[in-house]
Design goal:
With about 270 residues, the protein is an alpha+beta fold. It contains eight helices and eight strands; from the N terminus they run αβαββαααββαββααβ. Strands 1-3-2-8-5-7-6-4 form an eight-stranded antiparallel beta barrel, surrounded by four helices.
Length: about 270
């Protein structure tokens, strides 16, 4: 019990520290910033993909919904390295809640019953290869996850772009987050993209970095939206500002294209 409390308190404190760090904007009243857990399930083609998708649909997402999390995104990696892979996006009101998920799942009898084929898979036929997870705090200027509008394209045909920006220093990372909060959100909206979330990575790999997700009706809309984005005078002005153009404040970009699984709530 002491270990649980220490873990939860430590991560919660980290989240509060990030939330209070010097930001270009403050979150408006009633719009407290969320936290996100992103899980990547590394899989092999064949039974693992079917077993993991069934685990999401029948056990994990229902259990997380009972805990009060949601909407939960579940995605298949379509374009990117090391396929097949599934991604899970879990929003929460606190970092502590995300830190305690697996401990609470282990106490949920309904979950354990539904999850048995996945959780109890033998070492000779494992359910997955590895799972990686990261913890993020929503940007102050976009504090809540925003699912695509129901009229913005059929769910089965939608795609989601997951982009991660690594920076060469903490200073550059803070400037890049500030750049989003200083007008970049609106440029995405004006370009016809559908922003889902923007998160500052608190715990994860290859720090410092940020991750955000955009949604599109298909690849044609993605291409057209990015062309409008880079041609927007507001982007040209923002990206050439001496405050952000003094050096390359983004050193590496990861760009993934995902499609929603049938069980996804986003």
């Amino acid at each position: 019990m002491q270990r649980r409390n220490f873990l939860a308190a430590s991560i919660a404190s980290a989240g509060l520290a990030a939330a209070g760090a010097g930001s270009a904007q403050t979150t408006s009243p009633g719009r407290q910033r969320e936290f996100y857990q992103i899980r990547r399930y590394h899989l092999q083609n064949g039974p693992q993909t079917r077993l993991t998708e069934a685990y999401f649909a029948d056990a994990l997402i229902p259990a997380l919904t009972r805990m009060g999390f949601g909407p939960i995104g579940a995605f298949r990696l379509e374009y990117g390295p090391e396929t097949p892979a599934f991604y899970l996006l879990i929003p929460a009101g606190s970092a502590e809640a995300l830190a305690m998920i697996d401990l609470h799942l282990a106490d949920d009898s309904a979950f354990l019953s539904a999850a048995a084929p996945f959780w109890e898979a033998p070492a000779t036929a494992p359910a997955f290869l590895r799972v990686e997870s990261s913890l993020l705090a929503a940007f102050s200027g976009w504090p809540r996850l925003t699912p695509p509008l129901s009229g913005s394209g059929a769910k089965a045909n939608r795609i989601f772009q997951l982009r991660t920006y690594e920076s060469p220093s903490d200073r550059d990372h803070v400037r890049k987050v500030e750049m989003f909060n200083s007008g970049e959100f609106q440029i995405f909206v004006d370009a016809g993209a559908h922003p889902v979330f923007f998160g500052d990575t608190l715990v994860g790999q290859r720090l410092p970095n940020l991750t955000y997700m955009l949604s599109f009706a298909g690849l044609a809309e993605l291409d057209a939206s990015w062309k409008r984005f880079v041609a927007d005078p507001a982007w040209k002005k923002l990206s050439t500002s001496p405050r952000y153009a003094y050096e390359e404040i983004v050193s590496n970009i990861s760009n993934l294209i995902l499609s929603p699984l049938a069980c996804s709530q986003i």
